[in-house]
Amino acid sequence: MDAVWSRTARRGDDGGVSIGGADLREIAGEFGTPLYVIDEADMRGRATSFRDAFAAAFAPYGAQVDVYYASKAFLSSRVSAWMCEDGLSIDVASGGELELALRGGMPPARIGLHGNNKSDAELRRALEVGVGRIVVDSFTEIEVLDAIATELGVVAPVMVRITTGVHAGGHEYIATSHEDQKFGLSLATGAAFEALTACHDAPGLELLGIHTHIGSQILSHDAFRESAERMLGLRAAFLAVAGVELAEVDLGGGYAIRYTDADAELSPREAAEAIAGAVASALAKVGGTWPRLSIEPGRAIAGPAGLTLYRVGVVKHVSLEDGGQRQYVAVDGGMSDNMRTITYGAQYTAAIVSRESDAPVALSRVVGKHCESGDIVVRDVDLPADIARGDLLAVPATGAYGRVMASNYNSVLRPAVVSVADGEATVHIRRDTLEDLLDWDVAPPRTSR
Questions:
Q1: Catalytic residue ranges
Q2: What pLDDT, in 10s, does the model give residues 265-274?
């Protein structure tokens, strides 16, 4: 199968598709649909590819690189265990993600806590368990964290989130380093330098270094180079003024993946070599010793490893203004299990995975079952003209941001998540049940008339 699908995907002679040696028809029969399916070998292979590529690229300089898996892409306690076993650390952005990371056995010292509006409870919990870093995002947070750390009698290890002004990524909602947005402290206005000084002077804080994240779905090495140069420039300036050389620099993530055959992806090796070269070049210009580096891939590890499995329900044909026709294929999920199409205009592909077909292809749109005309899973894809009720349809490259953004819109039940390896499927997250739905609802008291 083509590169959009995970590495162990195979189509058999009868048209059925297997992942990790397990037939998707059998998996659908056992766990139902919709269903998120993770190719364990693919996901763990991508994780170790980032680990090894960056270690190799920075080794000639004697520099150390930590890879933090950005858990917002997808997290379960089993994924936390995988990342721990494979030598990665974990980046979390909420108290819930923190607990899942801990539940999977990730050592607290290898966990970083992000977020632009962390609660007092989240900050307190992070300090109590001893996370390795808290990435502060505002002057308010610096003050609050200093007070909580002092109250607890500990010193909070912090990095400062920097807005470098480097624009990268696709949709404006996933570009995170321009000035007019909620994350970070501006390099251009001097807020970043002021925040570093505030952290250094706070008795309850230990200033580890600086952090940035410039966006998502990035293909350009130039954006990472520019970001690295600006971050190293800030580090040199702080050394010159405050006499402190920051020990760590985190350059974030955002590495692009393929969603369709037309897309390209950013190779971990190429990215690592480009970033290592950029850091070396910047240090040659501004001076200073090599910091400890870190990166935060999430989508690039989880995204290509996952697919969403649907059962086809209704197929209808709609006439278009240009005289053509579009085949609408309605599945048993939709925007409740993949928000990215309606939110970001994301493009996906799809294929029948339960049988072969010799029928001619038809311009198709895969839609969901929700009461929204925008409930689109795949906007444009060629599918066999004989697709019919009961067929299994798979949408690849949904391992990131599918389940974590899922909702119960229209009171639908969120899908389960399973991983597959060596022909066996393992449940990570069980499917919602009607009992769950009714338990969440607080029923009014019954009255008699």
A1: 371
A2: 989 999 999 9
